[in-house]
Amino acid sequence: MALDERKGVWKSGKGKGRHTPKGRQLEDQPWQEVQELLGDGPLRRDLLIEYLHLIQDRFGHLSAAHLRALAEELRIAQAEVYEVATFYAHFDVVKEGETPPPALTIRVCDSLSCELAGAQQLKKALEDGLDPAQVRVLRAPCMGRCDTAPVLELGHNHIDHATPEKVNAAIAAGDTHAHLPDYETYDAYAKAGGYEVLARLRAGGDFETVQQELLDAGLRGLGGAGFPSGRKWGFVRAEKGPRYLAVNGDEGEPGTFKDRFYLERQPHVFIEGMLIAAWAVEAETCFIYMRDEYPAVLDILRREIAALEAAGIVAPGHIDLRRGAGAYICGEESAMIESIEGKRGLPRHRPPFVAQVGIFNRPTLVNNVETLYWVTRVLREGKQILSDVERNGRKGLRSYSVSGRVKAPGVHVLPAGSTIMDIIEAAGGMLEGHSFKAYQPGGPSSGLLPASMNDIPLDFDTLQPHGTFIGSAAVVVLSDKDSAKAAALNMLRFFEDESCGQCTPCRVGCEKAVKLMQADTWDQPLLEELCQAMGDASICGLGQAAPNPIRLTMKHFPDEI
């Protein structure tokens, strides 16, 4: 008998083969719901996080069926969607058979300023007084409102100086949405001469002249790195196009709220600076990456970008606003770029640097919000607004975010050479009954310095000899009623939560540090060995700076450990 005349399953094709694709099956209703949310426009892989926000906002969580449907629409693997959704803290992934979270979530900030103001007691009172089936209470990292601690977020409504009574009243009133502050709109800004500098430069400006003016003013990156802005622009402009611009609005360093301060008051001063920077490097698109903890700012920017498009200042799509999803690591520029591309916010190995290989592998200029705010101010008012201000041998101005045990916490714009005593004085002095004990000069990454070191100018380059740095100028003031040991533990717990997990020295090091720091007496040689490994081998600044609170506490507060 000929081979092709044989009978059998191999010939008929009616064996026990699979009748459906492997893995989770596509369900009609969730698929239809996802299609309706995404609309009819072209779908883009880099907008995956934006699509996840649409589903989370509509249904209050991300079900397995909706993730399956989203993967189908984007023609990517389910695993790819799942790994991105589970990376970010503000997405609630719910598998089959699991109970979705309650309709209302309260996030209580437990970073240092809020903890000093009683955040733990507030969280416990809410947990004891609310029905967990109706309201979910979570601890959360800094929300950028340290001047009104303790703070919590009820849905998207931030409650300052929070109490259980305020929370209950807001729940009863259904007040769960962001409240927009009074701010300068496009019309008001334009009437006052706004966008005239941009128009002049677009009509015939000279890049070298603008670059030199910024260099002469002494403007440096105010996100923490402090690199001269004019030089950075020159590096990106020298690269072959197309080029992009990315604004780092992921202001997640606990104690920092200066960017929110400017955006909620004068957003167009920042936007004009951004468009000037885009003109300077000939960027095709401006990406604004804004943290999800700033819902009011996101709303303001959506409205004002639409106003700019309507006025013909920018073409539709030239400004691409992206919404973060709760990941401190995305404040690191390469992690932010990964997130803009719709991926997990994992820092990249460098070189190459983002000025050469950034968004979609193209040269990218990354600037901080406040840096671009000062670009507009310098080009409008002249370089002397920064270069003519001098204190303690330092030039320029700094926006200090001040919180903790002071009478008037807030953003205080002072000469860059100001000492902690100048800052405390500007913030109204110490609270009654409190005496100055220690301070955090630049967020938890900078650690703690004792009150005796009160004559150091808080600026770039002045703190490095003392084992710390100014960073984003997030100043938290501690008093004699506070524990340096407890403050350091609070900082390391933050790093433990926010480590992206990519590299072992940071992922495991932060976890081990927290365990060692919970002991009554610290094992100092072991902690120092751990700090050395983290600082030497971590991929990015999170793991490299995380040892600072440990080392400075051991050095300056040995009696507590």
Walk me through what this model shows.
It is a single chain. The protein has 561 residues and is of the alpha/beta class. It contains 24 helices and 17 strands. The chain has a five-stranded mixed beta sheet, with helices on both faces.
Summarize the structure.
The protein is an alpha/beta fold and 561 residues long.
Chain-averaged pLDDT: 95
Q: Give me the number of helical elements.
A: 24
Structural class: alpha/beta
Q: Distance N terminus to C terminus? A: 89 Å
Question: What topology, given as strand order, has the largest sheet?
Answer: 14-13-17-15-16
Largest sheet: 5 strands, mixed
Low-confidence stretches: none
Proportion of helical residues: 40-55%
Strand share of the residues? 5-15%
The Rg value, from CA coordinates, equals: 25 Å
- By DSSP, the count of extended strands is 17
- Overall body shape: globular
Would you spell out the secondary-structure blueprint of this structure?
Elements: H1 9-12, H2 28-38, H3 48-59, E1 62-63, H4 64-74, H5 78-87, E2 93-94, E3 104-109, H6 112-116, H7 119-129, E4 135-140, E5 152-154, E6 157-159, H8 164-173, H9 186-191, H10 196-204, H11 207-217, H12 229-238, E7 243-249, H13 258-263, H14 267-281, E8 283-290, H15 295-311, E9 319-323, H16 333-340, E10 364-368, H17 369-381, H18 384-387, E11 390-391, E12 394-395, E13 397-404, E14 410-415, H19 420-426, E15 436-440, E16 449-450, E17 474-479, H20 484-498, H21 504-517, H22 524-537, H23 541-545, H24 548-556
Parallel strand pairs: 1-2, 3-4, 7-8, 7-10, 8-9, 13-17
Antiparallel strand pairs: 3-5, 5-6, 11-12, 13-14, 15-16, 15-17
